[in-house]
Amino acid sequence: MAADISSLILLRNDPGVAAELEVQAELGDVDAQYAMGLICAEGRGVAQDVARAFMWLTLADEQGDRDALSLRTTIAASMSDADHARALELCRERRPYTGSPAMRWLRQRRRPPGRH
Length: 116
Fold this sequence. Notes:
Blueprint: H1 15-26, H2 30-42, H3 50-62, H4 66-77, H5 81-94, H6 101-110
Helix pairs in contact: 1-2, 2-3, 2-4, 3-4, 3-5, 5-6
């Protein structure tokens, strides 16, 4: 059963809803993964955490959610180097495979200037 994210527009700070969505996201529900990316980015019902948002949106993107890719790109533009490093670690923990576009992008971001 797909996650019901229709009520997300009305959510403000509801940790119960966030916890339910996280369970569904952990089970691989792409809609819940996108929703977790959104609520982590905005801090709805969870502490604001752009690295976790990036990770959830990466998982949704890997399942073909183009909206997740767009939101992830927006979030990534405002992330600090520390946020990027943490996002890389979170993605590695989730996906041992590091050949995804998001992982390549994060590794490239961490390289010192002048190295390609």
